[in-house]
Amino acid sequence: MTNRDLIKQLKELKQINPDKEWVALTYSKLLSNTSISYIEKPNSKLGLFGGLDYMLKMASNGRFSYAAVAVFVFAFGVFSTTYTSKSLSEIDIISASMDFIGSQDKKVRIVIDDSENVVNKEVANAIKKIANEAGASFSNTVSIKSNSDSYDNKDVFIAISDLELTDEGGYTVVFKENSNSKERFTRIIIDTIEVKIYDISQSAKSEDEKIRQQTEAILSDARKAYGSGELIEALELVNAAEKYLFSATESK
Amino acid sequence: MFSKEELGDIYNEYVDKIYRFVFFKINSHELAQDLTAETFTKVFEYLMRTKSGEREISNIGAFIYSSARNIVTDYYRKRSKAILLLGESDMSLINRESPSARSADFNILQIDSFEEIRNAMSRLSDTHREIVTLYYIEEMSANEISGIMGKPEGTIRVALHRALKELRKELRSGSEV
Predict the structure, then answer these.
(1) What is the ipTM of this complex?
(2) Which sequence spans correspond to the domains of chain B?
(3) Nearest residue on chain A to B11, alpha-carbon basis
(4) Which of B29, B37, B117 sits opposite A26 (nearest CB)?
(5) CB nearest to B16's CB, from A18, A30, A35
(6) From CA A21, how far away is CA A201, in angstroms rounded?
């Protein structure tokens, strides 16, 4: 065999490639894994656009369409009466919830801390805009009323088929599955997990060693689940860590 | 600091290359995928830690390949019994085609078409196999390979010549079996 023939054979080995599915799956796992490991100063203020965008993605993620029930708790925290004067991108996401009511329709519960009575039409319209941009389809428009008088007559135009109002002023929104938003939707879960792990870890530092260790143990499990791509489990663990820390510090 | 988009571009550019690089060192499809994923994980973790003002990586490709080499080395180190018993020239013995290389994930035609050359490659020394992979399959220059392997360019060229000679010999002996 001549060198020329040999080299020709060798070049043909370039046809050996990894599985395309593996390539895509590894890609998504890589980026999420990388993010959680190396946040140094995370921006705990997820944009309202990002927040709902993610929730829409979450609802559209085919992975969850087979789950009987998967519950996440997201809440937009509104911390000051000057909220309305702030940029809408400065809303802090505390937690969010999502109920899967079927393989096609998913409910996303947005729990809004409206104790300051600042939710208004501006917020509602922003939510609608985000829902549009994230690909939600609109089948109905309804009026959402909160317990607060200031919110009466404010309309939120979002595709919903059902509406629940929680004690905290939450609204259930149903988003139709949209394949375009599939990838983007996972982002909300990812960012929420990252932010919460960081925040909880930071908060635990100021507590006594027992509380800190127990909190970190739960967060360690959350990180592992996150690194494995088990986002639901990771978020549940993160919420569990948060609850533990809260109850442990309250009982002191 | 790299954005996620930039990391995605890096991944798309190098994933197939690194997979092949690892595959021809390990000769196992499943394991090559695992180690490739591990390579990118470590690389991305490093890149995300890099801040402006700190030392930037001037050659991302060389960095990724070097990382892959180290990860494969670590993998072998974990199989320390074989490493201790075998010298580098005998590494080909543990690189012989494993059953997983014939996994259903592979196109059967590919396996049949490439089996002879792959078998011959697996009998090369680790260094020669690596140089052949980078030079002929990934079409890198001797200078680029020099950066990855940490050897002078002249050494790479000499090794390349010897690797081809050895490979022809292996193919000849393989066909005579």
Answers:
(1) 0.77
(2) 4-176
(3) A27
(4) B37
(5) A18
(6) 35
User: Residue A163: helix, strand or coil by DSSP?
Assistant: coil
**B126: closest CA among B32, B17, B21, B36?**
B21
pLDDT by residue for chain B (177 residues), tens digit each? 677 778 888 899 999 999 999 999 988 888 999 999 999 998 888 887 765 444 566 788 889 999 999 999 888 877 654 545 444 444 444 444 343 343 334 444 444 568 888 888 988 988 899 999 999 999 888 888 988 888 888 888 888 888 888 888 888 876 654
pTM: 0.45
Q: Considering only CA atoms, which of A228, A238, A240 is closest in space to residue A29?
A: A228
Closest listed residue to residue B1, CA positions, set A167, A41, A212, A201: A41
Question: What CATH number was assigned to the domain covering residues B4-176?
Answer: 1.20.140.160
Q: Please give the single-letter amino acid code of residue A62.
A: G
Domain residue ranges of chain A, discontinuous segments joined by +: 48-182, 186-250
- The tokens describing A99, both together, are 């109920």
Residues of A in contact with B7 (CB under 8 A): 30-31, 34
